[in-house]
Amino acid sequence: MKVIIFGASGMVGQGVLREALLAPDVEQVLLVGRAAVDQRHPKLQQLVHADLLDYGGQEDRLSGYDACFFCLGVSSVGLAEADYARLTYDYTMAAARFLAQHNANLVFVYVSGAGTDSTEKGGSMWARVKGRTENALQRLPLKAAYLFRPGVIQPLNGSRSKTVRYRLLYVVMGPFLSLARKLWPRSVLSTEIIGHAMLNAARGRGASGGVMESSDIYQLSKA
User: Fold this and answer.
1) What is the mean pLDDT of the chain?
2) Within a 10 A sphere around the Cβ of 62, how many other Cβ atoms?
3) Residue 172 to residues 149, 155, 167, 178: CA-CA distances in angstroms?
């Protein structure tokens, strides 16, 4: 199995990258981003690509894959809706459309968020944009589109947020998150669990796509 990861420098992306490199049935992992990730592995390849809205000329590098794990995302705090939509909807759809065109039977896993608004009409800006993105992905000619909506996530195995204040928060909350995950494993997920679920989605285990809330992600990770 060959997989592509967008957003491998982020917390969730780091988690799925680790699990993909450890999985015996994953033979190749391609990271796509504006900057290279400082990691080496026999399975690992990287494509440094400046324009995340245009993949023209990359047909050879971005063909022949079984799955894409799209973990690229930004916080909506301080952003106007048009700017957030460009970084969320436009970036996601540019990659998804190109990959769907050049990869037959591609499984696309998109990291959305708990509370995403599928109606695209709610009062929360970020939830509307995420909902529009989810809806558009489901209209593409993909083998399956999985729309992951995790809530609380505990970083494990060295994964950490790129945002300094979040990293500090995770340090303080670490023991509480560990306890919460034991008490409510279907609600409080880990980067490891999300990575396992993404790989099982690519393998075709469990559900056949669609919206995956935290409990669904947990169940898929165990499939």
Assistant:
1) 94
2) 21
3) 24, 12, 9, 12
Alpha-carbon distance values, 219 to 5, 72, 190, 205 (Å): 22, 23, 13, 10
Task: List, as one string, the DSSP characters of 48-79.
Answer: E-S-TT--TT-TTTT-S-SEEEE------TT-
pTM above 0.85, yes or no: yes
Q: In what order do the strands lie in the sheet with 44-48?
A: 44-48, 28-33, 2-6, 67-70, 107-111, 144-149, 210-213
Other CB atoms within 10 A of residue 52 CB: 18
Residue type, 8: A
3-class SS at 144? strand
Residue 71 to residue 94: CA distance in whole angstroms: 14
* C-beta neighbour count of 123 within 10 angstroms: 7
Give me the number of domains the chain comprises. Answer: 1
pLDDT in tens, 171-201: 667 788 888 889 999 999 999 999 999 999 9
CATH number at 104 reads 3.40.50.720
Determine the structural domain holding residue 83 and report its residue range: 2-221
pLDDT in tens, 98-150: 999 999 999 999 999 999 999 999 999 999 999 999 999 999 999 999 999 99
**CA separation (Å) from 223 to 70, 173, 174, 199, 206?**
21, 29, 27, 10, 6
CB distance 11 to 212 below 8 Å? no
Unique residue bearing structure tokens 């708990």: 114
